[in-house]
Amino acid sequence: MTAVEAKREAAIEDLRNFDGVVVAFSGGVDSSVVAALAADALGDRAVACTARSETLPAAELEDAKRVASEIGIGHEIVSFSELESEAFVENDEERCYHCRSMRLGEMFEVARRLDIETVCDGTNASDPGEGHRPGLRAVEELNAYSPLLEHGITKPEVREIAREYDLSVAEKPSMACLSSRIPTGLEVTESRLSRVERAETLLRTWGFEQFRVRDHDGLARIEVTTDELERALDPAFAAAARKHLTDIGFDHVTLDLEGYRTGSVSPASEADGSTGEVGSDTGTEAETEAETGTEGIPETGEEPAGDD
What we know:
By secondary structure, the protein is of the alpha/beta class. It has a domain at 3-164: Rossmann fold. 40% of the residues lie in helices and 12% in strands. It has helices at 3-15, 29-42, 58-71, 86-90, 95-113, 134-142, 147-150, 155-164, 190-205, 226-232, 235-247, and strands spanning 21-24, 46-52, 74-79, 118-120, 211-216, 219-224, 252-255. It has a 4-stranded parallel β-sheet, sandwiched between helices. A hairpin with a 2-residue loop joins strand 5 and strand 6 (219-224). The protein is globular.
């Protein structure tokens, strides 16, 4: 038995000590592994729960439904709004704390309804050392149980376990909630969240794999990974991005030449797990054309498939 297999088995054995658990579930790799471990340990007494709100991209909710079905775990979906919290809307350095507190609060409400005492989250052993993490404080204060952290399971080991379970999200990139695209100090509003989601849906439709669209009060700053930067510099992409992003409400569209990196507008927010994995994580597999880098990008007058 490998070290990772031993950690997995220890986590399963530990979870068997609970009468039942509700797993805070985004469909990202961390929460998916926790859900799989819990389902192994507890069967029907393990329930995944996803909190739907304005900060959760629709594609992420669909991913969560699909992965819950893969695992074979019961799946509850609850709706709430972070925008009802003035502290969240203010978007200070504690935004993730307020968000995580509200999300986990919804999970505990579901747990009470199901007569379950324990809520699990997807914090892993790599998370605490990644700088300012106010979301982790909420986990501690609400006494959520983090089996990955408890058993020293790091992010690479999480992915290894996900592959052992044959989960489709095993290689899924990290995906923080949409509010992480809005610079600290700029209010989080429904209109800003909506245009960010629509812009990122376009990039996904065009075949980019890991990216962010940052909203600087009407200026869209596109980040893509360095290996996709050449493709993003193509004039066809520039023209299409400018047209479609201004159509959905941005005043100006820019490309960040430094490329994608987490937390570039809100350092506290973007590591996987700090926002409940809403962050969650996201990824698409799309073929790109190596020579021109423009396959899948529409002409400037053409609507991209899937854009409403």
